[in-house]
Amino acid sequence: MEQNLFDQLKELLSYSFILRSLAAGILIALCASLLGVILVLKRYSMIGDGLSHVGFGALAVAAAMNAAPLQVAIPVVVIAAFFLLRISESGKLKGDAAIALISSGSLAIGVMVVSVTSGMNTDLMNYLFGSILAISRSDLLLSAGLCLIVLILYLCFYNKLFAVTFDETFARATGIKAGFYNMLIAFLTAITVVLGMRMVGALLISSLIIFPSLTAMRLCKRFRTVVIASAVISVGCFLVGMFASYRYNTPAGATIVVCNLILFALFSIIGLFVRRS
Amino acid sequence: MALITCNEVSLAYEGKTVASNITFSIEEGDYLCIVGENGSGKSTLIKGLLGLKQPSSGSILPGDGLKQNQIGYLPQQTPIQRDFPATVYEVVLSGCLNRCGLRPFYRKNEKQLAQRNMERLGILPIASRCYRELSGGQQQRVLLARALCATRKLLLLDEPAAGLDPIVTSELYDLVQTVNREDHISIVMVSHDIKSAVSHASHILHLAHTPLFFGTTGDYLKSEPGRLFLGGPHGTESL
Predict the structure, then answer these.
(1) B-contacting residues of A 228-267, CB under 8 Å?
(2) The pTM is what?
(3) Can you give the residue range of the structural domain that contains A112?
(4) ipTM
(5) Taking CB atoms and an 8 Å limit, are B73 and A170 in contact across chains?
(6) Integer CA distances (angstroms), B97 to A3, A156, B48, B80, in order
(7) Based on CB atoms within 10 Å of each CB, which residue in A7, A10, A246, A274 is the most buried?
(8) Planar angle of CA B66, B71, B74, nearest 5 degrees
(9) Which residue of A170, A173, A222 is in closest CB contact with B86?
(10) Distance (Å, rounded) from C-alpha B117 to C-alpha B162?
(11) In chain B, whose CA is at the least distance from the CA of A164?
(12) What is the per-residue pLDDT across A57-96, written as a single tens digit (0 to 9) for each?
């Protein structure tokens, strides 16, 4: 009963809910990979990870109060992002320890709220492990709008973001408002993390941010090439992962991350050979 | 009117004063070298002049219409830059950013400026090479080209010769001198290479937490701290 690939692809694209989730997924994958380049180079990767746990806590509380999940989670995560940024900048508290504290703390609160109220409902499970296929029409519009905002801001401030990432001291010294751009990065990351939770789940969203840019950096040596390659890798892995999850009946989020992992290993090996020759 | 006037400035790190009672000014066209032992507050003073650090007392005032975006800066290298995937051209061009204001992209004349400064430092042939693959000396030249792109009135250099071999070091000093004389850009350089400092600079500020000396290089050579620092009462003769 082995269908051929092409027929299966055609069948997949005939469902409107799949088209909807593909559209949302491509946009989120694009945002995550673009921001990922900056976060990895600024040594902020762990902030993305911490934010996903804060996001889960916020969603649990939203579910308990019967409130709209995204509308509650986004402001909470944005505030947490500014807070985490402030911690890692001030250097008084150990940044990594503080992030671990906040992320496990909000995860614990989330689990407590869930157990006291309704128990694990499907909506919450969806956010923990990702359910891109369950995305509703209104969610799609909100996600698409926010993704477009992230993309436009990223493009408008591309040169400034590069300067602030490469050398913040120099940028500050020559009159660039580095503090503002750091806030912008934190803000965009917060939005991307919450939206990405729908796709691969709170537990895996940071891999969506980190993998594509790390993969691109194995081979690319130019900042702009790294950004473009990371976007292409991210969207490619998303599409391949979605199709593979349909064909082999595996969870979409995890399959996408495994695709990213395989590509990363491949690029690392090629990178080793390129460097040796 | 001076470009920057420091009046009774004290600078502190987490409540601990590292430099105090600093009073001096930088005039247009000056070439000031800040010398002194390690940990005497030289780099902290540079951060103060750049506005990255607020003085704990006293004042650092810009004059002559000097704006933050007319200053170029060559920082000491930080580890984060060493594995950054960016080409030489991208790094140099980012020095032009303070001319952009809110405009998101670079204009043609800014790209030409980056080209000119790369040519000047002899790094045009490696413009598309990756910054992280360059030698320490080449990286320093890239950062200097970037600093020159940002400079319109004042250039601050923090230990520019650190980790460079003697030939590259003397090329670098010559270039800074050219920038000072031909482009009429004021220079502030932190250095512990006292011999080169006195042979290039017009003014010397000798710091040991408090200023031991501030004045012209000629006066410094005759002064007590200058003679001691250069190696005894006969130190100046060997120049």
Answers:
(1) none
(2) 0.86
(3) 2-276
(4) 0.85
(5) yes
(6) 55, 13, 22, 20
(7) A246
(8) 155
(9) A222
(10) 21
(11) B94
(12) 998 888 888 888 788 889 999 999 998 888 877 765 566 7
